[in-house]
Task: structure prediction
Amino acid sequence: MGNANIRCPQCGLVNFTTAAECRRCHSPLSAAASDRTVLDPANPSFVTPTGGLPDYKTAVPWSRRSSTNTAFLVIGWFLCPLLTLWCCLNLLTGEIYYDTPDGQGGYRVWSRANKIAALVLVGVWVVGVIIFIAER
Ligand SMILES: [Zn+2]
Result:
């Protein structure tokens, strides 16, 4: 007794059978009552490797995808400063997600170093513009 767990149908996190909702994604677990699986306590798989992961395109808004922000940073650098600034805003207000699982039930995110590098690039660009204008 006490070893029976229930796996969240949404994210794959293993919760106690007494839990009414998932600890991570808060989806109701009672709905999956018929789908309960008793897990082997000797094999504590807390998350499913990929099966429980929410769909990247559904879970991550396009403004928070790594591909979008990389493209906008590059395009903005050469063509449209507003795109670059928009990316900076994204970087400062939240995480940017890669389309690869982190092995812990989520997606990998841009590291702090990655964000700082992007911001430094923008900083250089801003300083360049200021110098350009000042020397006219
Ligand atoms: Zn869940």
About this structure: The first helix runs from residue 56 to 59. Confidence is low (pLDDT under 50) at residues 31-38, 43-50. The chain has two domains: 1-52, 56-134. Strands lie at 5-7, 14-16, 97-101, 107-109.
